[in-house]
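G., the chain you wanted modeled:
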Amino acid sequence: MGWDIWLLALRWHLATGDAVAGDIISWTESAAGHTFVTNSSRRWADASILAGTPEAQARAAESRITSFYANH
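Predicted structure as tokens:
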């Protein structure tokens, strides 16, 4: 999940030339950032389930990850 955010930050930096460390942290706290985090976390959980992780375990991890990244 963290990789997803920092790859997005790299894309942002390359497109604008702006430093993004503070901006990306603020962005993850916005509605758009929360949606990105929620969707990305769900996709990682889906992939984990396809790889054999029990669904309850993958969804629990999804919830923890979403909560961590969407609230920091």
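Residues 25-72 form one domain.

Shout if anything looks off.
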